[in-house]
Predict the structure.
Amino acid sequence: MKLVVQRVSEASCTVDNKITGKIGRGFMVLVGLGLGDTEETVEKMAVKLSKLRIFEDGNGKINRSIFDIDGKILSISQFTLYADAKKGNRPSFTDALGGEKAKDLYLYFNECLRKLSIEVEEGIFGADMKVALVNDGPVTIILDSEVLW
């Protein structure tokens, strides 16, 4: 599982000219699921994300979590995080988890975050989404379950 976490002052997702999710301060997270990912992987990544301290404290140090700032998350499914462009110029996505299993794990990830008492807005899995955000900092962190455990 791969997450691209962007610290934002605001973010939104639009599908067919309708806003599906909108947040103020918090994280805009691109969520990629790979072939070996399981519910356990998703649970661990939700906890890791919830504890990630990338908001500034009173001394200007990056030391506060999403809980500390009462932030929210905009979660966007993103299979292209598993792009492999080693050969040629057209990426391959053979390592990306697809179909209903990917959708189920993506929705489960969002529910895991909600169970941790984080407000989560979503895009629509598999839709043509237009994502807008104001990256605060900018701060962007990549979390990869294969590297973390």
Q: What stands out?
A: The mean pLDDT is 97. The longest strand covers residues 130-144.
